[in-house]
Design the sequence.
């Protein structure tokens, strides 16, 4: 692209600008004048505006074909290049434009109905869960009650025939010491040391 007056190419240091009156793309050198509220104006438009009334509109106007295109919707312009999906979307957009707008009161009513429906669903689900839990508890209780009670067979450990103090062979059973077994020496010395010489003892015979 280049300037329409001096043909200098546009670039980083030579930016593309436009005349506010004719609309041509020009460089900064070719826009030396500034016309009131319009902006920068080229050299050819400046004398024309001086001859006319300063309040006149710009002489540049877009072509009639361009204005006609703007009046038509973009869908009809690019209809030939659109795919089937694009056409379907365009039809949906047209239908949405035709649909009447919903008022704020209607939106609030719909939201209230949705909230009521959700609250009812939540209560129903809560009751269902509570019933299911109660049913599970009842089933477990019935199962436990139907099972036979297991009798605890407590097997008593056999009595060891040894003295409870020195682990030697037992000779006496002290009746006052809860049936503990003692040898002859521990029976005499132990009860004497404990001050319990009055305990009754009987001879112990080892069962075969």
Sequence:
């Amino acid at each position: 692209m280049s300037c329409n007056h001096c043909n200098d190419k546009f670039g980083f240091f030579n930016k593309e600008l436009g005349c506010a009156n004719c609309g041509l793309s020009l460089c900064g050198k070719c826009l030396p004048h500034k016309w009131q509220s319009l902006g920068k104006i080229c050299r050819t438009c400046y004398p024309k505006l001086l001859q006319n009334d300063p309040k006149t509109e710009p002489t540049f106007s877009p072509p009639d074909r361009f204005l006609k295109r703007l009046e038509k919707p973009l869908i009809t312009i690019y209809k030939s290049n659109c795919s089937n999906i694009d056409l379907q979307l365009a039809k949906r957009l047209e239908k949405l434009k035709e649909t009447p707008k919903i008022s704020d009161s209607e939106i609030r009513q719909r939201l209230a109905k949705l909230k009521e429906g959700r609250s009812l669903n939540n209560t129903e689900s809560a009751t269902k869960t509570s019933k299911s839990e109660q049913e599970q508890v009842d089933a477990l209780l019935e199962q436990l009650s139907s099972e036979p009670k297991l009798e605890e067979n407590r097997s008593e450990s056999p009595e060891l025939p040894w003295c409870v103090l020195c682990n030697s062979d037992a000779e006496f059973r002290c009746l006052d010491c809860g049936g503990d077994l003692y040898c002859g020496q521990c029976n005499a010395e132990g009860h004497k040391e404990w001050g319990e010489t009055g305990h009754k003892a009987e001879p112990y015979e080892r069962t075969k």
